[in-house]
Design goal:
Number of helices: 2
Strand content: 35-45%
Radius of gyration: 31 Å
Order of helices and strands: HEEEEEEEEH
CATH superfamily of the largest domain: GOLD domain
CATH topology of the largest domain: Jelly Rolls
Distance between the termini: 115 Å
Strand order of the largest sheet: 1-8-3-6
Helix content: 40-55%
Number of domains: 2
Shape: elongated
Largest sheet: 4 strands, antiparallel
CATH architecture of the largest domain: Sandwich
CATH class of the largest domain: Mainly Beta
Structural class: alpha+beta
């Protein structure tokens, strides 16, 4: 029974989904407090593929522990050796004044094992724990990719609806213009023949 309880309490996961627009030549920074032995994962993608984004992670001393420049997506994970506060920033250094739309998730893992003999219990379930962690991470990645696909589908749908609306109103304008041109031609020809008939009389 203790093994079952230990497995149930093995991993506590929090997944937070976010979306933000990063203005040109600005940065958006966020903070994550992580306890010793816990881990957190950050996944991000530029949702509109307008260009890459810089991504930087620092610890509470200001030391850069992760830096990627100009990528459309990235994946970062860390296991805290001590209690720490991590800062991760999305930096838009684009010189074309283009806004970057970022979709990202924060994935927090807090492992807790409770038993009468913690060390013995941990040794017994370590292989199962490893498999559960792999399964959990795989599910998380699938979930993130699904959210990204849903977001892309929503963006494409909005673009299509906007394009269809513009095409519809342009078609109405062309139709109105064609009707007006036809009416003008009919009236002009009618007056022309009436004037010609009066001239003959």
């Amino acid at each position: 029974m203790l093994k079952i309880c230990a497995l149930l309490l093995l991993s506590f996961t929090v997944v937070l989904g976010h979306r933000i627009n990063v203005e040109p030549r600005t940065s958006e920074c966020f903070y994550e407090e992580v306890k010793k032995g816990d881990s957190f994962v950050v996944n991000y993608e530029v949702s509109d593929y307008s260009g890459g984004i810089d991504f930087r992670v620092t610890d509470n001393t200001g030391r850069t522990i992760h830096w990627k420049s100009g990528l459309l997506d990235d994946f970062f994970t860390v296991v805290a050796a001590t209690d720490d506060v991590y800062t991760y920033c999305f930096i838009n250094e684009d010189g074309k004044n283009e806004v970057r739309a970022i979709l990202w998730n924060v994935h927090e893992n807090s492992r807790t094992i409770q038993s009468d003999d913690e060390s013995t219990e941990h040794a017994e379930i370590t292989p199962i724990e490893d498999e559960i962690v792999k399964l959990r991470d795989g599910i998380y990645i699938v979930k993130f990719e699904h959210e990204y696909i849903v977001n892309r589908e929503r963006t494409h749908r909005n673009t299509c609806e906007s394009t269809n609306a513009r095409v519809k109103w342009w078609s109405f304008f062309q139709t109105g213009l064609l009707i007006a041109a036809c009416a003008f031609q009919v009236i002009y020809l009618k007056r022309f023949f009436e004037a010609k008939r009066k001239t003959r009389i």
